[in-house]
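Duplicate of #3305? Posting structure anyway:
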């Protein structure tokens, strides 16, 4: 961004898809640090760029609640209860009409394979309710180890970033996972140190 007056802002990606900002061609600052320094709260950053999808953990399995968030996705094998599975085609895209049909047949959620959650990006900090243990931070990708722990704990809901389309690049989420600035003051200090 080159203004008529004031500082130049150069946004650039590195080889890991982390987004950085150069202010007046000085040292790089993470884009999420920069956004926090101009007053956007860390908790609100991902909400500005992505939609979220709830995932419910129960009985060692993962479920997506049936709602507007599943429109556009495809029905996976084993995602529907057996009593209605034969009425829908595996691979069929969920439209508003299909969603209404599923709701009329009393389907409340879709089963999600644990392998389908690997490398999905968290929309919030993942904290085990019983112990208060932090399993993963907001913006981090789910790993098989975390998914195995989640399936054993069960009984809670977490948010993942909803992918839209074939190509999903969670650039802001990946950048946020690298960001150590947890508050406005820390971000401002980081930006100020880089500009000196």
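Output from current build:
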């Amino acid at each position: 961004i080159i203004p008529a007056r004031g500082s130049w802002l150069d946004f650039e990606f590195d080889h890991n898809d982390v987004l950085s900002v150069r202010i007046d061609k000085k040292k790089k600052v993470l884009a999420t640090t920069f956004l926090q320094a101009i007053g956007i709260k860390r908790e609100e950053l991902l909400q500005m760029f992505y939609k979220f999808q709830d995932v419910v953990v129960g009985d060692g399995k993962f479920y997506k609640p049936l709602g507007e968030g599943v429109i556009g996705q495809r029905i996976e094998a084993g995602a529907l209860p057996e009593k209605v599975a034969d009425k829908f085609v595996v691979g069929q895209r969920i439209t508003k009409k299909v969603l209404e049909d599923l709701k009329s047949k009393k389907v409340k959620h879709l089963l999600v394979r644990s392998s389908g959650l690997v490398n999905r990006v968290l929309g919030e900090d993942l904290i085990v309710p019983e112990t208060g243990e932090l399993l993963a931070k907001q913006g981090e990708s789910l790993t098989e180890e975390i998914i195995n722990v989640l399936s054993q704990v069960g009984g809670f809901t977490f948010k993942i970033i909803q992918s839209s389309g074939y190509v999903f690049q969670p650039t802001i989420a990946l950048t946020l996972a690298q960001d150590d600035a947890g508050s406005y003051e820390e971000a401002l200090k980081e930006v100020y140190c880089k500009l000196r």
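Confirmed duplicate; merging threads. The chain has seven helices and nine strands. The radius of gyration is 20 Å.
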